[in-house]
Amino acid sequence: MSFDFGDVPTWISAISATGALIAAGFAAWWTSKTATSAGQQVVAVREQVEAEREQLELAKGEAERQQALAAQADERAAAAAERERVAAEAAESRAEAAAQRERAAYRAAEDRFLRAQLDTRAPTVYARATPGSVLREHTVATVDGPSPTPLLAVVPLATYQENPNAIFWSSRYSISETVSIPDDKFYVFVLTATIQFVNSSDVPARIDFPNLENVTLLGRRWGQELVVPPREARHVVARRKLESAGMKTNEGIGNPNVTTLDLEYWVRDLGTNVRDTFRLCLDMRYFERDGSRLTVKPEPAFPWEECFGGQIKQRLYEQLDTGEHFDK
Known about the structure:
Radius of gyration: 59 Å
Largest sheet: 6 strands, antiparallel
Number of domains: 2
Mean pLDDT: 80
Shape: rod-shaped
Number of strands: 17
């Protein structure tokens, strides 16, 4: 048997082509297998990533839940702390209020005790006013004996300006009958009263006159106090000067500030711890209007022989009411 291979290079080429084809097929098969495996790996990786993502979401949700629980716990703790703080402040406030009440009660008791002590040392003084001046040094000699300065004296303005003191020492300036004064004439009227301060207590008294704007106390300087020993009396002479020019109308005459002699005075102990405020209001309504004339009567509308001062304010404890006896 004989074989005819013909052209050897051709046969070798065929074998080479067949081997290349087989190799290419194997390569394609391997590539396909590898690609399938890679795809499966990608799917597996994706599944793993998705599983991890789900785990992460679960972990995140758990973390958020734990955070929310922690926040709620913090809120509850803060609320509890706030309640405790409020309760502590309320307890402290109640304690402070109780302490203040105790201090107030103590101070009130001390104040009552001190005031009661001062009340026992406060002088008791009453003032008695009588018309005119009845003191010996304020009288003038007449054929009938001493003549007191009148309650109301009148003198022409020019005469008064020349010698203001003459009106107080001569009875000839007193009014004994009704006098009519035309509006074109100018006169000065002087209202005079004697005030006796009687100390009926066993302690000395100090009399102060805080307002002497419209009243003059004869022989006493502004701000000079009067001291009255226990169970004794002292006198002052008070006067008020009026001018007819201020009483040209009924309104002027009817004004209490014009036709009254008001004297406010304080009764105090020598240590000025206690002050009682009194006022004497003496009726001096001697005046009326009659057309263009001012009518002056020898007696006031409501004659009086004596008048007593009245207390116008509550007792003032000068040192206590300023709080000087309490520790600040």
